[in-house]
Amino acid sequence: DAMVIQNPRYQVTQFGKPVTLSCSQTLNHNVMYWYQQKSSQAPKLLFHYYDKDFNNEADTPDNFQSRRPNTSFCFLDIRSPGLGDAAMYLCATSRDPGGLGTQYFGPGTRLTVL
Amino acid sequence: AQSVTQLDSHVSVSEGTPVLLRCNYSSSYSPSLFWYVQHPNKGLQLLLKYTSAATLVKGINGFEAEFKKSETSFHLTKPSAHMSDAAEYFCVVSPSGTYKYIFGTGTRLKVLA
Question: Using omega within 30 degrees of 0 as the cis cutoff, is the peptide bond preceding A8 cis?
């Protein structure tokens, strides 16, 4: 089945130790998104790629970076995780951005920062 | 400015009774509207979407929603709740021509035996 896959499902890191979260998709969608979701809150968009074009949300901290080496893969890098970065990180894809496009979400990676 | 308001943060229903989760939106352009469900520690699953076709939209697991432009509402309903429906539900609006998906704050549905 076509899907959005996130690895790992659970990630534990230490304060200040860089971490990379992975997302892959078999849907061949043009757009890939990264969201941060804290407990009992709605997902918050960090950034998205439309093909190779990177679009950062204005309030996304510089500590968060992303790479999209090809259509199928997208990575979220947290350069120096703080305790406040502990959250669920959701990857999503859509064929087209917004409007008529539908987002498909992966299962998420839960990040714990010690 | 575009926004989504989910009017209830928590809803409790008894198993077998109807479910109503309310959503109002504000959008300058013809929006697409979505309902997603999220079970604990899981990703978001699409329940249904409205994209300017029929105003009554049927989704998975017996859910449906009606787009009412005059009321700027997109309420989610189900005739009979099941225990497995207990989850968090998000209403999402995406204005046409933008990349934005604007999330409501979510409604936690509790189903009582």
Answer: yes
How many whole angstroms separate alpha carbon B88 and alpha carbon B11? 10
Question: Which residues in chain B are closer than 8 Å to A99, comparing Cβ atoms?
Answer: 32, 94-98
User: Is there a contact between A111 and A21 (Cβ–Cβ < 8 Å)?
Assistant: yes
CA distance B14 to chain A (A): 23
The C-alpha angle A86, B87, B40, rounded to 5 degrees, equals: 35
Rounded distance, CA A55 to CA A34, Å?
11
**Contact yes or no for A5/A24 (Cβ under 8 A):** yes
Q: What is the pLDDT along chain A (114 residues), one digit of tens a residue?
A: 669 999 999 999 999 999 999 999 999 999 999 999 998 889 999 999 999 999 999 999 999 999 999 999 999 999 999 999 999 999 999 987 766 678 999 999 999 999
What pLDDT is stored for residue A56 in this prediction? Answer: 92
| Cβ-proximal residues to B96 (8 Å cutoff; 6+ apart), any chain | A98, A99, A100, B29, B30, B31, B32
Put simply, whether A102 touches B (Cβ < 8 Å) is: yes
* Cα separation, A8 vs A23, whole angstroms: 9
Q: What is the pLDDT of residues A44-53, one digit of tens each?
A: 999 999 999 9
